[in-house]
Amino acid sequence: MDDFIIRAGLGGIGMALIAAPLGCYVVWQRMAYFGETIAHSGLLGVAFGLLTSINLTLGVFLAAVMVTFGLRAVERKTYLAKDTALGLIAHVVLALGLIVTSQFQSLQVDMMGLLFGDILAISKLDLILVLGGLIAIWGLIAWLWQDMMALSIDRELALAEGVRVNKVEFLLSMAIAATVALSMKLVGLLLVTAMLIIPAAGAMGLARTPEQMVLYTAFISCLSVLCGLFASFYVDIPTGPAIVVAMAFFFLLTSLVKR
Amino acid sequence: MAEMPVHSKEEDLPPSKESANSLEGSQQEIPLIEAHSIGFLRDGRWILKDIDFTIHKGEIVTLIGPNGGGKTTFARICLGILQAEEGKLVRQDDLTIGYVPQRLKLDRTLPLTVRRFLTVRHKVSSKDLLSALIEVGSSHLIDTQMSSLSGGEMQRVLLARALVNKPDLLVLDEPAQGVDFAGEAALYDLISKIRDRFGCAILLISHDLHIVMGSSDRVLCLNGHVCCAGVPEQISLHPEYERLFGPNRGQTYGIYAHSHDHSHALSGEELDPCCSHEHPSPETPETDPEDSKDKP
Asked: How confident is the model at residue B212 (pLDDT cuts 50, 70, 90)?
C-alpha cells in the first residue's frame, strides 16, 4: 500500500481515539452545538494560519481557543441562553473569516479541503500533531475522569462535593477545541461535529457504564475511519463524507441492538 | 417584609434549652457551619437578608418557608454552590458534606449503573457500597440503570451516595419530591434512623413541617429573612409563623388528624396543630396539591 494511505489510516485512527471520550462528553453535556461553533471559526483559523505561515491546524486551534474564551465572556456578561450565545459567536467568527479571506488576495484558501477535509493529503507534521494531541488529551482525560463524570451527572452535586467545576469545564472545552482543529483535516469543517457525536450516539445504546460507552465509541470510530478510507480508495468517493456515512451505518446497526 | 422581631433572635440559639436530649452541651462545641448575617442578591433583589444560622454535630435542623422564601438558596450557600454577597460563612475544617439534591439532572444519554454512580469520585470498597445500599433498603438496585429508577428509588440511591462518603453533615433538599405519601413517611423515618446510626447532622429543607416535626431538633422558618427559629413546638405558636402561613391552621389540623392518623406513629408524639398544611406565602396564595389532599 502507498505511504499516503498508511498516513491517512494512522491519522484517522488517532483522531478517532482522540474524539471518542470527548464525543461522549459532548453528548452527555448536550454540547453538540459547541463543536459546530468552533468549526465555524475554522475559516478564520485557516486565514490566520496562512497569514502568519504557521501550520494550519495550529491556526485553527488558536482561533478555536479564542472562540472558547469569547463564549465564556458572553456567557458571564449576559443572560443569553447557551444556544443563543453559541449562535452569536459562531456566525460572528464565520463572518470575520469571510471578510479576512476576501481582503487578502494572496490568501489561497483551499475551500473544498476546508469544508470537506483532505485526509489523503495528511502530512508527517500533521501526523505528529495528531499523536501529540492523542497523548495530551488522553492524559488530560485520565486525570480529570472522575471529576468529568461527576460534572456530567449533575453540575450542582459536583460543586457541592468540591469539584472545581469551572476548571474542569474550561480544560475540556480546550480539549474539544483541539479535537475540532485536528479533525478538520480529516473530515472538514462541515462534518467535524459528526466525528464527535455520531459514534458516541451509536455506543450509547450498547453501554451500561460511561467507561464502556467511551470504549465502544472508540471502536465504532476506528472502524468507521477504516471503512471510509477503503471505500474512498476503491470506489473513488470523497473520504470525509464516506467516514461520516460509515459512522451513521454503525449507528443504525447499534440502534437495532438492545442494551 | 416585616422586620425580624427581636425575640426571634433570642430563639435562634443552639438547641437543647427546651428539648432536653443528648445534645446538651453542644453550645460549647464548634458548630459544623456557622453563618452570620448572610445576604444573597439576585438580579438586584435580596433573596436572603441577615440570615444567622448554626448547625452542630448530630442535630437535625429543618428549613421551612414559602416557595421563593430562599430555603434552597440558603442551603446552596451552605454547600458552597453559591457565594453569598454579604455576611460570613464559617465551615468546620475538613467538613464532609453529603448532599441529596431535589432531583438529579442526570441526562439519559449517560449510561450509569447505581454501583458506578456511588463510586464516582469516592473510593468505596464493595462492602461499604453494599452496606450503604442496605442501609437505605435498596441493595437490590445495585446493577440497575440510574435512568430506570422510580422517584422513591432515586431518592434512596441519592441518600446512599451521600452516606458512602461518611458525612458529618447531610443536606437534604425536599427529599420527598416525587415520592408518594406512604413512601414519604418511610423516607423521613429512614432519615431519623440515619442520624441515630451515623451521628451526622442533618439540614433538611421541607415544605411539609407536619411530617418532619417529630424528628427535628430545631426549625428555621425562612421567607427572605428568618421569620422565626426554635424548637418545632415553639415555631408553630410563633405569631410571625401564624401570620405567614395563615390563620386556618387549627382547622386543617382537625381534618389532618382524621385523614392521615398513621403519621402519628412516625413521629411518636402528638403533632403540632400548625404544621398540617402546605404553607402558601401571602404573596403566592396558590393551593398546593398536598393541601387539597388534606381537605376533603
From this structure: low
Provide, for chain B, the percentages of residues in helix, strand and coil under a 3-state DSSP scheme, each rounded to the nearest 5.
Answer: 40, 20, 40
At CA B60, angle to CA B54 and CA B65, rounded to 5?
Answer: 75
In this predicted model, what pLDDT tens digit does every residue of B94-136 receive, in sequence order?
888 899 998 888 888 999 999 999 999 888 888 889 989 998 8
Q: Which chain B residues are within 8 Å of A152, Cβ to Cβ?
A: 107, 110
C-alpha cell of residue B201: 447532622
Give the distance, in angstroms, between the CA of residue A120 and the centroid of all CA atoms in the same chain: 18
Alpha carbon separation from B24 to B61, B167, B269 (Å, rounded): 16, 22, 21
**Whether A240 contacts A187, CB under 8 Å:** yes
pLDDT of amino acid A77: 84
B52/B38 Cα distance (integer angstroms)? 7
Kindly provide the ipTM of the predicted complex, given to two decimals. Answer: 0.85
Q: Give the residue among A253, A240, A227, A19 at the shortest CA–CA distance from A120.
A: A240
Q: Which residue has 470527548 as its cell numbers?
A: A22
Distance CA B127, CA B114 (A): 15
**Is A160 in the B-facing interface, judged by CB distances under 8 Å?**
yes
Q: Determine contact, residues B29/B241, Cβ cutoff 8 Å.
A: no
Residues facing B173 on adjacent strands: B205
Residue B140 has pLDDT above 70, yes or no: yes
How sure is the predictor about B68, in pLDDT bands with cuts at 50, 70 and 90?
Answer: confident
Whether the per-residue pLDDT at A160 is higher than 80: the answer is yes
DSSP state of A30: T
Contacts of A154 in chain B (CB under 8 A): 101, 104-106
- Is the Cβ pair B110, A163 closer than 8 Å? no
| Residue B137 confidence (pLDDT) | 87
Q: What DSSP character marks residue B64? A: E
C-alpha cell at A207: 453501554
Residues within 8 A of B (CB atoms), A 193-222 only:
201, 204, 207-210, 212-213
pTM of structure: 0.80
The larger pLDDT score, comparing residue B8 to residue B163, is at B163
| Alpha carbon distances (Å) from B12 to A254, B55, B250 | 60, 11, 25
List beta partners, residue B138: none
**For B32-53, what is the mean pLDDT?**
87
How far apart CA A19 and CA A187 sit, in angstroms, is 12
Q: Distance (Å, rounded) from C-alpha B268 to C-alpha B24?
A: 22
